[in-house]
Structures are given as structure tokens and as C-alpha cells.
Write a structure and sequence with these properties.
245 residues; 3 strands; coiled coil; rod-shaped; mainly alpha; 2 domains; three-stranded mixed β-sheet
């Protein structure tokens, strides 16, 4: 019967369509599962990267915090060191100023004592030392020096000499082959007079001007380090120039 045949064909067509639809659905499900797996893998990777990034950030923050703490400690220590150094420097400066005042006071007392002794006694040296008590005589005649090779008794020089140095010329003079000469500083003379005294000494013994500055510095060092006055020393002109020239 024709209507039965048409019905069977329709059912067959519907069945085929249903099978095709189910196959496509399975294919879509498979594709979705594949994509889902890939997405899940990407999510897992991103999660790991985020965790690593977070850990790195925390490490950086911890390191920065530690550096800031260390910086604060160092700044505090530096401030303490600077404060202590400033305090120590101020204390040292005050101590040095006090010592300088005491030394100057002591030096002035010695000079006054020696000037009082000089005013009561006029002393003539045996070989060329001669004490001059009047300042007018000193201005006109300048410092006095004994001849090369002469020596004087220390006790005889005390009333009129603050510093005396017996200098071995060692043949440095133009008209001498050696010998010694005594350079003296009177009690009324100060370090500002050393240059003139040394110039006269060099002129009198015909020494080379190159020795002038060295001898001046030598006298300044003697006065600076002196613990008692009058002061008497022996020195070589060559050694003075080697150390102070």
C-alpha cells in the first residue's frame, strides 16, 4: 500500500537525521572537552605564575623593608659618630687652648724672671758673649754671636739667654772649614724675631741663605716643645736642614 511505503521512508529519514544530530553532538562534546582541558591547563599555569609573582613581590617588599631598616640604623650610627666627634673635637680644642695659655703664661714668667736677673747683673762672656740690657743697644747692634768653635758655660748664659743652640757648621760657611757657632735668643725676643736673628747669624758666619728657613723652623720647634727654660741644645747645620729644610 502506497501510504505505508511513504510512512516508512519518512521514519527512515527522521532516524538518519537523529543519528546525524547525535554524531554532531558527540563531536561538539569532544571539542568542548578538548577546549576545556586546554583552558584548564592555561588556568593552572596562570595560577602558578601568579603565585610565583606574588612570592617574588613579597620577597622584594621584604628586602626593601630590610634595607630601609638597615639604612635607618646606619644613619643613626653616623649621627652618633658625628655628634661624638664634634664633642671630642671641641673638648680637645679647649684642652689645647688651655695648655697653650698655660705654656705662654709659664714662658712669660720665665722671661720676666730672666729679665729681672739681667737687670741686676751685667755679664760679659769669656769668648765673645756680651749681655746688652738696654733695648736701644739691641736695636742698633742686633743679636750677638760668639766666634766659630767657641763654647760658653751654661750657667753663665742663664741671666741673658732664653734659648741657645751650638750649631756645628760643618764647613758650610764661605770662610770656614768647620767649627761651631752659638745662636742665641734673648728673653725679650719672641718667635716673631727669629727670622731677623737667623738672618744676622747667617750673615755673620757667611752661611748660604738656603739654611735660613730651616733654622727658623728649628727654633720654633724648640720653643714649642720646650718644657723648661732657659734651653740649651747642640745641633748640626746639615741635620737641621735635612729635617726642617
Amino acid at each position: 500500500m502506497p501510504w505505508i511505503s511513504r510512512s516508512s521512508n519518512a521514519e527512515a529519514t527522521e532516524l538518519q537525521a537523529l543519528e546525524n544530530a547525535m554524531q554532531k553532538q558527540q563531536e561538539l562534546i569532544a571539542q568542548m572537552n578538548l577546549v576545556s582541558g586546554e583552558l584548564q591547563g592555561q588556568v593552572t599555569q596562570l595560577t602558578k605564575e601568579l603565585e610565583l609573582s606574588k612570592a617574588s613581590k613579597e620577597q622584594v617588599q621584604a628586602a626593601a623593608s630590610r634595607l630601609e631598616s638597615e639604612k635607618a640604623v646606619l644613619l643613626n650610627e653616623m649621627q652618633q659618630i658625628r655628634s661624638k666627634a664634634a664633642t671630642d673635637q671641641e673638648a680637645l680644642g679647649e684642652k689645647m687652648r688651655q695648655q697653650e695659655k698655660e705654656a705662654q703664661k709659664k714662658l712669660e714668667e720665665f722671661k720676666q724672671d730672666l729679665m729681672q736677673l739681667s737687670s741686676c747683673k751685667d755679664f760679659d762672656g769669656q769668648e765673645g758673649f756680651k749681655s746688652r740690657q738696654q733695648s736701644g743697644d739691641l736695636d742698633r747692634q742686633g743679636p750677638q754671636f760668639p766666634a766659630p768653635g767657641e763654647t760658653e758655660l751654661v750657667s753663665a748664659m742663664v741671666p741673658s739667654v732664653l734659648i741657645a743652640v751650638e750649631i756645628d757648621l760643618g764647613g758650610s760657611g764661605d770662610d770656614t772649614n768647620g767649627g761651631a757657632a752659638t745662636l742665641t735668643i734673648a728673653p725679650w725676643q719672641t718667635s716673631s724675631d727669629y727670622k731677623l736673628v737667623v738672618q744676622d747669624f747667617i750673615h755673620n758666619y757667611r752661611l748660604k741663605p738656603i739654611f735660613e728657613e730651616a733654622v727658623v723652623r728649628f727654633l720654633q720647634e724648640l720653643e714649642r716643645t720646650a718644657t723648661t727654660l732657659p734651653l740649651f741644645r747642640k745641633a748640626s747645620l746639615a741635620e737641621i736642614y735635612q729635617e726642617y729644610g
